[in-house]
Structure formats: C-alpha cells, structure tokens
Design a protein that fits this description.
There is one protein chain. Helix content is about 75%, strand content about 0%. By secondary structure, it is mainly α. The mean pLDDT is about 80. It starts with a helix and ends with a helix. It has three helices and no strands. It is elongated, with a radius of gyration of 28 Å.
Length: about 100
C-alpha cells in the first residue's frame, strides 16, 4: 500500500485502467499481426509455387502455361485491371482477337 500512499488512490485506479487498456490494445495488435503474417506466408508460398512451376516448365517442354487455382499475378492496379477486362470484353464482342 506504499504506492497508494505515494500516488494516491485515484491515480492508482487511473493507472490500472490505462494499463488494462494498453494490454487489450496490445493483444488486438498481436492478433492483427498474426493474421497479416499468415496472409503474407500464404502469398509467399503461392509465389514460390508459381516460380517452381515456371522453372519446371522448360524441362518438360510445355508450350502451354501451367493451369493454377491461384489468381494471375499482375502489375496493374485493380482499376487498370477492370479497364483492361472491359477492353478485352469489347474486342471479343466485336469479333476481335
């Protein structure tokens, strides 16, 4: 109880509340980080798998790209991908290639 005498009871309660809030925030941050890290690992494994397939493709003599459940990697932004898909759809509708 020496701490309570030194800082007063109200300050001790405020300090305990702040500590609890910080502990909760830290737990939430750890959970979010775990989720982000898991997603990163999944993405990293997909990229490694695709790189492995590309390395193996010349050895097998494949001329067709390997089919995959993974979405294609693109350097385009989502908006640019949408525009590109719209252009390709118009070309197909008009009988173009």
């Amino acid at each position: 109880m020496k701490i309570a005498k030194l800082f007063g009871k109200n300050n001790l309660e405020d300090t305990n509340e702040r500590l609890e809030l910080l502990e909760k925030a830290m737990r939430r941050m750890e959970e979010e980080w775990t989720d982000v890290y898991s997603k990163f690992r999944t993405l990293q494994m997909r990229v490694a798998k695709q790189a492995q397939r590309l390395d193996q493709a010349p050895e097998r003599g494949d001329t067709q790209p390997v089919e995959s459940d993974d979405p294609p990697l693109s350097s385009l932004s989502p908006r640019a991908q949408l525009i590109q898909n719209q252009i390709l759809a118009r070309r197909r509708a008009n009988g173009g290639t």
